[in-house]
Amino acid sequence: MLDELIEKRKKALSESEQHKNRRNELNALASSHAKERNKLNGQTREFVEEAQKNKELRDKYNTEVKELKVQRNELNAQANEYFGEIESFKKEHSSFKRNSSVKELQRQIESMEFRQQTEVFSTDKERELIDKIKQMKAAIKEQEDELEQNKDLKTKLQSARDLRKEASDIHDRVTEVAELAQNHHDQMVEFYRKADQSRESADAEHKAFVEAQESADEEHQAFIACQKELRDYDKVISGLHNKKKKSKVTKEQRQVRQEAERIFELFKGGEKLTTEDILLLQRSKLI
């Protein structure tokens, strides 16, 4: 029975070591997943912060675009008033009636410039559009040169040109700022995309961390159970050892007693005893 218990204890000890080693491996794996998860969460926060910065810049530039467009439109409206007066003059003088309205040409130019700014064209189409704008501007210049022969019209033309030039400069700034706004919008979208990707990866790492941690906890519980089983075996085996040892001592004592009684009988019969015989009789309390 004792040998059987010892074998069972060896098996329990082996299982205990296996559970402990597996627990340690899983804890290390869980720690690795947690470290990677934290790293990815940090990246996600950085990406979101960058996205927010670009969003703020995009909104800032979009606001500036709106304000610039208002200024541009106001200047164009003032210029159109002068051009309207000039058109009225042209209608009253037959020599100008054959020409297209400067105001109408300018309206077409603004429309085409707006299309150039907001629509996507092939290289050839965009070049064609730019050429048309140049032709119309040349036609306006030709008419204005003719109108400048009139002193009053020359003053109005100059005022209209100044306003149109200022509006054109603002339009260039509108295009520039609109491009900046679009660039920051694209960067914002890209950073949000990266944030989503790193967040998904962090979630996967967290899931792996939880699974590894739960498995480690299971292995730890199994290790604890094995440790309890080992303590139980130790108690039983120790008890059996003590019982066996006690039995052996009792047997030896009985043998010593029998030997002492034999020597004592010899002593009573007058036999001469050795020193060892006398010490044995004393330990047995026979003398």
Give structural attributes.
Helix Hairpins; mainly alpha; 287 residues; 5 helices
Please tell me about this protein's structure.
With 287 residues, this protein is mainly alpha-helical. It has a domain at 20-217: Helix Hairpins (Orthogonal Bundle), CATH 1.10.287. The chain is 91% helix and 0% strand. It is built from 5 helices and no strands. It has helices at residues 2-92, 102-118, 123-147, 151-268, 275-283. Helix 2 (102-118) runs antiparallel to helix 3. The radius of gyration is 53 Å and the shape is rod-shaped. It starts with a helix and ends with a helix.
Give a quick rundown of the structure.
This is Phosphoserine phosphatase. The protein is an all-alpha fold and 287 residues long.
As a percent range, the share of strand residues is: under 5%
SSE series: HHHHH
Residues in helices, as a percent range: over 70%
What is the CATH C level class of the domain at 20-217, in words?
A: Mainly Alpha
Coiled coil: 126-170
Protein name: Phosphoserine phosphatase
Biased composition (Basic and acidic residues): 12-25
InterPro entries: DUF7121
List the helices and strands and how they pair.
Blueprint: H1 2-92, H2 102-118, H3 123-147, H4 151-268, H5 275-283
Helix pairs in contact: 1-4, 2-3
InterPro entries: DUF7121 (IPR055545)
Protein name: Phosphoserine phosphatase
Organism: Methanofollis formosanus
